[in-house]
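CHAIN AND CONFORMATION:

***
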Amino acid sequence: MSLLVLFSTVSFTVEKHFCGDVLIDVSVFTEAEKCAMEETEKELEAITKKSCCKDTIDVFQGQDELIVKSFDNSDFEHQLFIASYIYSYVNLFEGLPQHIIPHKNYYPPNLVEDLNLMDRVFLI
């Protein structure tokens, strides 16, 4: 959506240089390069008063006016709809319940010997 707004508001020019009926150069943002005959043609133009080279410029105007609406400028029904939509969307997803681990930070002592084997006490 932002790219659409960007490209609809950008203005640019396309400049074309023709030598006779042959297209020599097309330029979008800069000036089109002139052909080699441009210098010699100035001498011929003084004699014949007619030029064979010509430049055409196409201007593409972008949109100048954008309508920016804010939340405060809309009527009460639209504000109510937007607020209820946001509230329902936020409460749509429930979080996972937190599992309480009672002995999370308890580390048992290091066993040097196996006490059950040493005292010969076994669970039956």
Summary: The two ends are 73 Å apart (CA to CA). The mean pLDDT is 80. The helical segments are 2-9, 37-48, 76-90, 115-119. The chain is about 30% helix and 20% strand.
